[in-house]
Design brief:
about 425 residues, alpha+beta, UDP-n-acetylglucosamine1-carboxyvinyl-transferase, Chain, 2 domains, four-stranded mixed β-sheet, about 30% helix
């Protein structure tokens, strides 16, 4: 599907969708909980549905109601040997791989074409070191995992934080008497480890951790308790309407955001202030507007690489050189987002330079119209739509259905259809 975005001032009130990071973590925890859990106001997206299907295949029973999921879980997965399709959901793949290592039946994971290019090799090496049997080709799906999880000490490098989150969530369910010790080298996206640990803390799970997260010790033999509650809004999704307001002036007020949440991408509002925008919080809503020029600068996105595409879009409208740095791991997402944003912004008249771990944008304050390709990457699609709102002429975006992965309805919002 292609969408034509006509330039306009983006303003109004926007209800931000629920967090994907929270929704998928809650689904998998509930699936491995003895008892019934309730997830209120979850994200309804393609990634969520992929995760729900995996949880069902692992033995959970899920009842879908308006604005609520009821999950009847079990401590050990009941799946016999079978293939689980995670669709486009990397979060589901990485987290579920670790949970699969808790059982004694082989489980094979697959996914779409983008998932087939995303390596889980460091996570798989760690699982093998903890006793699991792992079969894959260069760390990519199809991947077959079989327990049991015996515990031990393993080293882990985390270009994506999801490798570590996977082990932290599954390790407490390892057999009683076992222990998992993790020695962490590289760790990107650190705020998402804070998010994962918040769930262990809520569940009163026993663990030890170095202050810098370079070491963890997790005893086995624990169990997760049933839980309920509302899923907070998604700061990663909120970045797109917030940046649309920054580009076009706004004001836009975004609802259902908890400023105290652990999601790393709430950093977008700090970045927008540094770029020269007004950001005003009022409890769970935030208003973004701009009256002066956007200010170029250098921004370290190591902890929040998902912000790269939309920050590149904003930087195109800031006069001068903006550097988005320390983000080599943005190349291993659904696409190589550094290369793709350079290519697509170039089609709209913006000169960008690639570095191994950075994207340099030479902003001109405007964009020309044209045709761009979303590369089947939801964040690329939404970033290009955000940029198009401030262009000098309409922009046609190829493959906009990809936005349904995390933010259903955003393209209609950007196009002014809602």
């Amino acid at each position: 599907m292609n969408t034509i975005i006509t330039p306009r001032r983006f303003s109004g009130s926007i209800n931000v969708p629920a967090s994907k990071s929270h929704t998928i973590r809650r689904l998998l925890l509930a699936a491995f909980t003895e008892g019934t859990s309730f997830i209120d106001f979850p994200l309804d997206s393609l990634d969520t549905r992929s995760c729900m299907q995996v949880c069902t295949e692992l033995g959970a029973r899920i009842v879908v109601e308006p604005e609520r999921l009821t999950i009847v879980g079990r401590r050990r997965h009941a799946a016999a040997a079978k293939t689980l399709d995670v669709g486009n959901s990397g979060t589901t793949l990485f987290l579920a791989l670790a949970f699969a290592a808790l059982g004694t039946e082989p489980l094979t994971f697959t996914g779409d074409e983008q998932i087939k290019r995303r390596s889980a090799a460091p996570l798989l090496d760690a699982l093998a070191g903890l006793g699991a049997s792992v079969v894959s080709e260069q760390g990519c799906v199809p991947i077959t995992v079989r327990g049991p999880w015996k515990g031990g000490t393993v080293a882990l490098s985390c270009p994506t934080s999801q490798y570590l989150s996977a082990l932290l969530l599954a390790a407490p369910l390892a057999p009683a008497g076992s222990a998992t010790e993790l020695e962490i080298g590289l760790l990107n996206e650190k705020p998402y480890i804070d998010l994962t640990l918040s769930y262990l803390n809520q569940q009163d799970i026993d663990y030890k951790a170095a202050l810098d997260y370079s070491w963890f010790y997790i005893p086995g033999g624990a169990h997760y308790k049933p839980f309920n509650g509302m899923v907070p809004g998604d700061f990663s999704s909120a970045a797109f309407p917030a940046c649309a307001a920054a580009i076009t002036g706004g004001p836009a007020t975004l609802f259902y955001l908890d400023p105290h949440d652990h999601q790393g991408d709430k950093y977008i509002f700090t970045l927008l202030e540094q770029l020269g925008c007004s950001v005003i919080w009022d409890r769970s809503r935030v208003t973004v507007s701009r009256s002066g020029p956007l200010q170029a600068g250098t921004f370290d996105l190591n902890a929040t690489p998902d912000l790269l595409p939309v920050m590149a879009a904003v930087a195109a409208f800031a006069l001068g050189r903006t550097a988005l740095v320390n983000i080599a791991h943005a190349r291993i997402k659904e696409t190589d987002r550094i290369a793709v944003m350079r290519q697509e912004l170039g089609k709209l008249g913006i000169i960008c330079e690639e570095r191994p771990d950075a994207l340099i944008i030479h902003g001109t304050g405007s964009l020309q119209g044209g045709i761009v390709d979303g590369h089947k990457d939801h964040r690329i699609v939404m970033a290009l739509a955000t940029a198009a709102l401030g262009a000098d002429a309409p922009v046609e975006i190829i493959g906009t259905e990809a936005a349904e992965v995390t933010y259903p309805g955003f393209m209609a919002l950007a196009a002014g259809e809602v």
